[in-house]
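User: I'm putting together a teaching handout on how sequence relates to shape, and I'd like one worked example. Could you take SusD/RagB family nutrient-binding outer membrane lipoprotein from Flammeovirga pacifica, show the sequence you're using, and then write out its predicted structure as tokens right after it?

Assistant: Happy to. First the sequence, then the structure tokens directly below it.
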Amino acid sequence: MTKNINKLIVVFLGLLTFSCTQKFDEMNTNPVEPTEIPPNMAIGNMLVNGNIAEWSRYQQAFTLYSSLYSQYFANTTNYFSSGRYIMNLGWIDYGYFRTQYWESTRMYDDIKSYSEKYPGYDNHYWIARIQYELSSARTTDQIGDMPYTEGGRGTDYPKYDSQEFIYNSVLAGLDSAYTMLGNFTDQPSYGSEDVIYGGDIQKWKQLANSLMLRYAIRVSKVDPDLGRKYGTMALQRDLISSNTDNASVLTDPHSYMRGHPLFEVAWWNEFRMSRTMQKQLTETSSNLTDPRMYLLFAKVEHNDVNEETLQSYIKLNEEGRLTDFTYMQNRNDEDLYTVSFYKGVENGLPANEIPALGNNPGDNSNIGPMFNNNSRYIVMNYAEVCFLKAEAAYLGWGGNAEASYEEGIRASWDFLTSLSETQNFLSGADPAKMDIDTYISGLPTFSGHEIENIQTQKWIANYPDGCEAWAEVRRTGYPELMPVKQNDSGINLTNGFIKKLPYTESEITINAKNALDPKNNQGQGDGIDVSVWWDVD
């Protein structure tokens, strides 16, 4: 009898389970949650977060990593150690992996699916494709081989694609976007939802082609044929041709986390101008300090400085550590002084040295007049295109290298001096310090030092894009960075500098088979002393 009852119970539970599981998907589906997202609702998120243009991601991607390693900035707080090459994998995950897979890939796939299902969204798709390829190139530049075809697309253990494969796909995608955009003249674009170009198809075509030139140059050493193929193609088409074409994200300080991200984080005293940046701005021209310095960075000013502290600043100035150093006695107390100067701090200072006079954030230059909370966030500018054309000419792809190089410097200066943010400073500035022609006339001879000259000026003009600057420093070796004061990674780095960011903890633990594959990164595996594909020197 007991056995029969038990059998009935088993049968009943089985039927109940079958009945429940038949409706499980229905029960666990939110009836008001959209199953597809129209492109207009997805593109804003993709353009903002895909370009790391909100402050929390920006801090973890740029000011704690790439902007330190490109030496635009140096760390000035002793509670962050990424400047000394101690890796926080959570920051890398949030700044780069989540940006790539949660924002760029997910939004791109939603827009792609929608455009395939409904007619009239081709322009929407190709604009999203440009942003997706830009985001993908930026991410692989920082971390090397990565999940590209399967990452963020529902695969439990996405495979890692080689950077060579990714770059070939990125270049082909940008080529297709340039070709296809504008073929659908009867279709609308995003309009005001496009926070970069306001739906202007022609400007998106120019950006696609300019990015193609950027990445053709990027691969020109490791794969000269691939670089030449896409580089010469780009030079024959429409490029960003003036500062009015610059690609930049519209910021909104009245929306949560949508003010200019660098401006938002600059006041937390975590970083300041690097010593490398100071030297490049003050020593590159034999005639004049680079006038852009006064717009890129702020002057340090201290009131009520006593005699002992004044002598310490005078000593720093005698050592060549201060730029435009001045001091004067206070009117009301002759025992106190007011001092002012520009200064950069060394990268990788030991934590116990950061609070010292001359090293702390109060003694080094913060961001300058070119930034405000509602400044546009630059994605790619005309000056960079000029320097890309200069290198392309040097490689024999056509054009005049020196003319494009000089045009890039002037384009950078013209952009900075056209900003509404800089007008107040310029109105009171010493004209003798603002003479770009005098600065250019004192630059090193171009012939025989072409790549060093081009890359140094591109590095300055691309500020504060630390991702792009760090990629180009690794590719070319210019400008020459100063040694990091202390490496706490425990790894004996080949040339003293980190070469790429490591994979995140979640990848190492969950997707270990692919993330820890020793065939990754040209058989080098993973690590901070591992070169990415295009870094062949």
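A couple of points you could highlight for students: Residues 42-269+371-523 form a domain with the Serine Threonine Protein Phosphatase 5, Tetratricopeptide repeat fold (CATH 1.25.40.390). DSSP finds 22 helices and seven strands in the chain.
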